[in-house]
From TrEMBL:
It is an enzyme of class 2 (transferase). It holds the Pfam family Flavokinase. Residues 183-312 form the Riboflavin kinase domain. GO terms for molecular function: ATP binding; FMN adenylyltransferase activity; riboflavin kinase activity. Catalyzes the phosphorylation of riboflavin to FMN followed by the adenylation of FMN to FAD. Pathway: Cofactor biosynthesis; FAD biosynthesis; FAD from FMN: step 1/1; Cofactor biosynthesis; FMN biosynthesis; FMN from riboflavin (ATP route): step 1/1. This is Riboflavin biosynthesis protein. Belongs to the ribF family. InterPro entries: FAD_synthase (IPR015864), Riboflavin_kinase (IPR023468), Riboflavin_kinase_bac (IPR002606), Riboflavin_kinase_bac/euk (IPR015865), Riboflavin_kinase_dom_sf (IPR023465), Rossmann-like_a/b/a_fold (IPR014729). One of its GO terms (biological process) is riboflavin biosynthetic process. It catalyses: riboflavin + ATP = FMN + ADP + H(+); FMN + ATP + H(+) = FAD + diphosphate. SMART domains: Flavokinase (SM00904). Keywords: ATP-binding, FAD, Flavoprotein, FMN, Kinase, Multifunctional enzyme, Nucleotide-binding, Nucleotidyltransferase, Transferase.
Length: 328
């Protein structure tokens, strides 16, 4: 996949694609339906499949204090889109010129003059142009006038819930990881760098790598204990391990800061300073206060056994998206 981040540096092969338009935070099953629709048009027309998005999200530029925490970093979006077969990712900076562009000017200057698109697909509620004044009906009209096909894609519902980034954020914050992952079509994933903690984990018999976010933070799920897959970025490549993670303030030890800590179930490693990805596979329980440390240690042993069982039963991490396209 080729990634284009600057208007001025768009090579010729970024032009003439079938493009999915949107922000795609989470790359959830609704987003996947939009990308699939753009992919079908790409195959029909014999042109590359692309995604046009703005990075950072316009909301993060216009009202950063009100922007919700992200489900996916840009790097994670790139990886998920690559898995979906996206060939050209055009992630343009959202600047003041773009902000003030009327819908017609956006279509003419960006979609036609800059990108010469052949087709566009977006969610039925997609808005574009100055103050989000352009909608899908207008994009279809502009497409007819300017010579590109437009497909409006209906929302995707899973077990009666319409996939949306907002709903997935709510589910994660409420501790409903199973539904959030189902709507994501992949396991929720975050990560960071392994830093020093209180050196207590090794005394308990469960060393835990403390993960500190680097760069733009993602949302974190509700506090609790989770079965995870931990991706360690060793100098010579990324390796995945089964693990268990504790997310929260460690009430047993009067912790006051919120920490994300991962115990890799098998083996001992020196992880300090390395990057680690944490894929949340299943929620095991909430954090608890233990008056007796031995009781916590016994519970941690049960957590590890439960994590093993959950990880054995879990489907492969990516491409598990299910869902039904609904009308309307
Ligand atoms: C599987 C697992 C379950 C845990 N459950 C709890 C818990 O219920 N309550 C709690 O206070 N801390 C819990 N912890 C967090 C430990 O207290 C924490 O890992 C320990 O204090 C080590 O901290 P350190 O990495 O800073 O040394 C859990 C940790 C793990 C790995
Ligand atoms: N299986 C393992 N899972 C997680 N960390 C491990 C493991 N084996 C060794 N370690 C190392 O132990 C460190 C965590 O030990 P711990 O006693 O919890 O101290 P601290 O939290 O202060 O770093 C990790 O950062 C890592 O370098």
């Amino acid at each position: 996949m080729q990634i284009h981040r600057r208007f001025a540096a768009l090579p010729g092969n970024a032009r003439g694609a079938s493009l999915a338009l949107g922000n795609f935070d989470g790359v959830h099953i609704g987003h996947r339906a939009v990308i699939a629709a753009a992919g079908e048009a790409a195959r029909r027309l014999g042109v590359p499949l692309g995604v046009l998005t703005f990075e950072p999200h316009p909301r993060e530029v216009l009202a950063p204090e009100r922007a919700p925490a992200r489900l996916t970093t840009f790097a994670r979006k790139v990886r998920l889109m690559e898995e979906l077969g996206v060939e050209q990712l055009i992630a343009l900076p959202f600047d003041h010129r773009l902000m003030s562009q009327a819908p017609e000017a956006f279509a003419k200057e960006i979609l036609v003059d800059l990108l010469s698109i052949r087709a566009a697909a977006a969610g039925h509620d997609f808005c574009f142009g100055h103050r989000r004044s352009g909608d899908m009906a207008q994009l279809s009209t502009l497409g007819r006038q300017m010579g590109f096909a437009v497909q409006s894609v209906h929302g995707v519902e899973l077990d009666g819930q319409l996939a949306s980034s907002t709903l997935i954020r709510k589910l994660l914050l409420a501790g409903n990881l199973a539904d959030a992952n189902a709507l994501l079509g992949a396991n929720f994933c975050t990560g960071g760098i392994v830093v020093h903690g209180d050196a207590r984990g090794r005394e308990l018999g469960y060393p835990t790598a403390n993960i500190q976010a680097v760069g733009r933070k993602t949302l974190l799920p509700a506090n609790g204990i989770y079965a995870v897959r931990a991706g360690v970025q060793w100098p010579d490549g990324l390796l995945w391990y089964d693990g268990v993670c504790s997310l929260g303030t460690r009430p047993t030890f009067d912790g006051n800061d919120r920490r994300l800590e991962v115990n890799i179930l098998d083996g001992r490693y020196d992880l300090y300073g390395l990057r680690m990805k944490v894929e949340f596979v299943a929620r095991l329980r909430g954090e608890e206060y233990f008056a007796d440390i031995d009781a916590l240690i016994q519970q941690m042993a049960r957590d590890c056994a439960n994590a093993r069982a959950a990880l054995c039963a879990a489907p492969p991490s990516l491409g598990t998206g299910k869902g039904r396209i609904i009308a309307g």
